[in-house]
Task: inverse folding
């Protein structure tokens, strides 16, 4: 019996050390898989001590980098647990990030449906603070109107869609620069745009910023 207890006392520190390295790597790998589902490459780093605090959704830092990601291909969750996880992620998309003190998401060459962003940044410097969102890229008036129309649905979607239909063909397909800046607050995991600046093809920044944010958060 004493030797058995001694073995446990020796094994516990070893298991603790293994857990500190293995758990963040495992959870980061799951996020990377979701981001890379449609193509591209991603690298995610999770910082937490003790590592087990990640299971409660808390940590010191969340960093994600990616390039060439294609997020228009829907992530297919397998199994009941995975489907429930995906539903929770869409219902409260910021919940997975709110528990981290620092958040830094930087994606380049990002495709979200017909929208293309050369750079997508979502940052926060302290727990409880708002997020800063930046989206830069190139798009066309028709792509913006079509995508926002489908996302809005109903009468609003029809109104936005009609803008695309009323555009002169040449102008509708002319590439234009896209640059959006927004401050995003979290209401218990639900994103709320506290401020948004910029416009694309005469449409306000808010709806487009919400759309891009929702697509990316769905994979985090």
Result:
């Amino acid at each position: 019996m004493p030797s058995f207890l001694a073995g446990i006392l020796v094994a516990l520190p070893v298991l603790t050390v293994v857990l500190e390295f293995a758990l963040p790597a495992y959870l980061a790998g799951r996020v990377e898989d979701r981001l890379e589902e449609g193509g591209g490459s991603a690298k995610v780093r999770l910082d937490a001590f003790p590592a087990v605090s990640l299971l409660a959704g808390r940590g010191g830092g969340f960093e994600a980098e990616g390039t060439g990601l294609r997020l228009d291909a829907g992530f297919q969750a397998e199994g009941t647990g995975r489907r429930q996880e995906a539903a929770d992620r869409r219902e409260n998309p910021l919940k997975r990030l709110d528990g981290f003190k620092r958040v830094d998401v930087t994606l380049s060459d990002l495709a979200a449906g017909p929208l293309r962003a050369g750079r997508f940044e979502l940052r926060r410097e302290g727990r409880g603070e708002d997020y800063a969102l930046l989206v830069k890229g190139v798009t066309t008036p028709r792509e913006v109107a079509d995508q926002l129309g489908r996302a809005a649905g109903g009468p609003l979607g029809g109104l936005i869609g009609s803008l695309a239909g009323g555009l002169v063909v040449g102008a509708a397909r002319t590439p234009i620069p896209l640059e959006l800046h927004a401050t995003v607050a979290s209401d218990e995991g639900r994103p709320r745009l506290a401020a948004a600046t910029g416009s694309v093809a005469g449409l306000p920044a808010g709806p487009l910023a919400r759309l891009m944010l929702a697509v990316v958060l769905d994979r985090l």
